[in-house]
Amino acid sequence: MFGSRFYGRPHRSLYCHYYFANRVISFLFNLVFNQTLTDIEACYKMMTRDVARSLRLTANDFGIEAEMSAEIARQRSLRIYEIGISYYGRTYAEGKKINWKDGLKALWYVFKFRFR
Fold first, then answer.
1. 6 contacts: CB under 8 Å, gap ≥ 6
2. Of 8, 30, 39, 77, which residue is most buried, by most CB within 10 angstroms?
3. 7-27: pLDDT as tens digits
4. How far apart are CA 37 and CA 22, in angstroms?
């Protein structure tokens, strides 16, 4: 089960460019993995121990989101469900650390993990 910041309440908006970047990344992920997820970059992911142990994870940065999602999507016996989560977006002053370079890496990771 994955969390989605776009279903939950209360909700403080992301920065506009982060919102659109997230939508593009999720759209491309859905396209190459035949999924219908709204927010693969949300950190909330819940799974059984058996599923967690079956994942072959190598990323050590924000790419872990795309890699986990890809590994689960590749296992045809598994289905990903989304549930709304409460989200209160942080500003840079509050500790937001992600930047545009991470967005480009996320796009790269979607294709890297699809054709690995």
1. 38, 39, 84
2. 39
3. 866 666 667 888 888 899 999
4. 11
What is the residue range of 39's domain? 2-114
| DSSP annotation of 38 | S
pTM of the model: 0.85
Asked whether the beta carbons of 16 and 27 are under 8 A apart, the reply is no
Task: Report the number of distinct structural domains present in the chain.
Answer: 1
In 1-116, where do the E strands start and end? 2-4, 11-12, 82-84, 87-88
Give the chain's largest Cα–Cα span.
43
Q: How far apart (Å, rounded) are the C-alpha atoms in residues 84 and 22? A: 16
Q: What token pair was written down for 106?
A: 């996320």
Please report which helix (H) or strand (E) contains residue 63, including its range: helix 63-74
